[in-house]
Design brief:
Keywords: ATP-binding, Nodulation, Nucleotide-binding, Transport. By secondary structure, this protein is of the alpha/beta class. It has ten helices and eleven strands. The longest helix has 16 residues, at 185-200. The mean pLDDT is 94. It binds adenosine-5'-triphosphate.
Amino acid sequence: MIEIKQLGKKFEVENPKKLSEQEKKDPRLKGRFFHSVTNVSFSVDDGQVLGLLGPNGAGKTTTLRVLSTALQADSGEVVINGINVLKNPLQARKKIGFLSGSTGLYGRLTGRENIRYFGQLHGMSKIQIDLRIAALSEMLEMDTFLDRRCENFSTGMKQKTAIARAVVHQPEVVILDEPTTGLDIMATQTVMNFIQDLKTQRVPVIFSTHHLDEVSKLCDRVAVIDKGISKFDDSIDVFNQLANGDPNAAFLDIINGGQ
Ligand SMILES: Nc1ncnc2c1ncn2[C@@H]1O[C@H](COP(=O)(O)OP(=O)(O)OP(=O)(O)O)[C@@H](O)[C@H]1O
């Protein structure tokens, strides 16, 4: 289970001139600090998939990076299967599989070598790594490119490799930042099937997306954030009922304060 309570994260603005016009007007900008996330709460149980929604700049990536221990929170609480993530980040990290927005693969290594390297970092044995890569390659349909260097991979190949790398250690929870962005229909379907498989294994999954059709197909729960604040955290059924089964209208209602 993953529980996030009243999360807050601010960044020091090193060069205010670099802020976008929108950010300069954003109420989250206070003096030298941009308060990207000020009050975000949601939870997801074992065997559930949660879709994290919000407009551009809402604070989704910031939230997911705090959950994954890549960033330190300023306030709030994150608990993953009983471990306080903010107090015990190293212990928590072993339990988490995190796909960040930028894949960051080593271009000169093959897909297999990239995944293997992460397995080694997690302390897995050679046999464990080989078996796991074989299983992931099948699930994510990677066998045709697994042994090619990553530098010439398509977006879909890169994303599949990055996902396999993120979950090589069989994490207890999986956090994916926009896993299907830029993917074609086939690759999107493969990634969605992969999330469905995790759900069948009762691994809780949180993923951010702008695609409401994916949320309707996969998610048990929906969390919506806007300008760093939680606006909705409930079941997919409650979300759909907000606007007679129209998820786009439900999302807009939430953002425009219609509920
Ligand atoms: N390191 C940083 N320093 C300053 N501001 C930051 C930093 N990281 C994020 N922000 C700002 O915090 C706000 C939230 O960003 P974040 O990337 O979390 O949004 P998002 O909901 O993931 O957006 P998108 O849907 O566009 O990916 C943005 O205005 C962003 O510019």
